[in-house]
Each structure stands twice: as structure tokens, then as C-alpha cells.
Design brief:
The radius of gyration is 18 Å and the shape is globular. It has about 200 residues and is an all-alpha fold. The longest helix is centred in the middle third of the chain and has 18 residues. Helix content is about 55%, strand content about 0%. It starts with a helix and ends in a 7-residue tail after the last helix. It has ten helices and no strands.
């Protein structure tokens, strides 16, 4: 697969998607923490990289759980394995391997005798380089169709989407009302929900 095809596919298949009941049920199946997560699509080392990136994108705070607390990496892995077409899986794989190369991590399983050590500083540096940037830098990356940038952008979008649609965040962090009452048109978000976004 060439770089241009990967970028086109990534924009179409891994961008913003509609949360259908099937996808939401997949997310709920990831809501309980398993003893040991065995990824379906990613290799073990890729799963560790994904966990590290997701944790930096949405870390735990004193008031809210982080992306790891609601099993976002597990959901992303399950979503890629179950919901994407074979062609979209190839696109995703191609992009993720580019991220691994940028981090200097081989795309092969490490030797148990010499395990690869992931450094939070390295993961934070790649996120800073490609996502914590000015509008001009963003436009430059888009213009040159930079594969690592597009892949990290996709991972960030998937992380936020999976996080916001998780049961824990939807019910306990965002404003949640399964049976809406009367509609009040011209009031502020602060007055309506205490400043919280709606989960539905």
C-alpha cells in the first residue's frame, strides 16, 4: 500500500463516525477491566504504544477517570478488528507502523530477554510534535499529507469519541437525562447542565 492511498483511506474510514447501537454495545463490552488484555488487532508492543498515547491524550484527573480507566485502548483495538473492512485495516496498520517507526520502536515482537522500554517522554514528544502545534504547522502537515500526523490525529479522535461514549463518562461525568423533560430554548449551558455537555 502506498502512502497516498493510506492517507485517503484514513480520512474516510477512521475519522468521525456515527455511534450505532452495535458500536455502543462493543464499547460497553470493554467497560470491565480484564485481568490481562489480549489485543485482537494490534501486536502486544503496538498495544503498549496505544495505551501510552491514549493515557497522555486523556489522563486521569482528581475529578474524572482517564481513558485507560474506561478501557479506551481495548475498545479501539476491538473496533479496528471488528468494524473496519480489510482495506481499512491495512490503512490503519500502515499508519500505526509509521508511528512506531517515528518512535524508533521495531514493528516486531520484542525478545523476552531484551524487552523494549517505552518512555513516556518519547510518547509525549511525538504528540507534542504533531498535535500540540500551531494552525500553520497543522496546515503544512495536511498539505504534505504527513502519515504520522494523520494517524495520531485519528488516534486522538478515536480516543475522545470512545471516552465520551463510554457508560462511565456518559452517566457520571457528562450531563445525562435518559428521559428528557420540558424543552427550554434560550438558556445558557451553565444554567441547563451546570456547564456539562450532554452525553446523548
Amino acid at each position: 500500500m502506498n502512502r497516498r492511498d493510506a492517507l485517503k483511506g484514513m480520512g474516510l474510514s477512521l475519522g468521525y463516525i456515527i455511534a450505532t447501537p452495535t458500536i455502543l454495545s462493543m464499547l460497553q463490552s470493554c467497560s470491565t477491566k480484564a485481568e490481562k488484555w489480549v489485543p485482537l488487532f494490534h501486536s502486544d508492543i503496538q498495544a503498549l504504544v496505544l495505551e501510552g498515547l491514549v493515557d497522555l491524550i486523556l489522563p486521569k484527573t482528581k475529578d474524572t477517570p482517564g481513558a485507560l480507566d474506561v478501557n479506551v485502548p481495548k475498545f479501539i483495538d476491538l473496533y479496528v478488528a471488528e468494524a473496519l473492512t480489510d482495506e481499512d485495516k491495512e490503512t490503519y496498520k500502515f499508519g500505526f507502523e509509521a508511528v512506531m517507526d517515528e518512535l524508533g520502536i521495531p514493528n516486531v515482537e520484542p525478545d523476552p530477554e531484551q524487552p523494549i522500554k517505552l518512555k513516556t517522554e518519547d510518547l509525549d514528544a511525538i504528540l507534542s510534535k504533531y498535535l500540540r502545534i500551531s494552525k500553520a504547522q497543522r496546515l503544512a502537515y495536511i498539505t504534505e499529507e504527513h502519515l504520522v500526523f494523520m494517524t495520531l490525529l485519528t488516534i486522538r479522535d478515536q480516543t475522545v469519541w470512545a471516552y465520551k461514549t463510554s457508560k462511565e463518562i456518559g452517566k457520571n461525568v457528562l450531563a445525562y437525562d435518559p428521559v428528557p423533560g420540558e424543552q427550554k430554548g434560550c438558556i445558557s449551558v451553565e444554567e441547563a447542565t451546570g456547564g456539562k455537555a450532554w452525553s446523548l
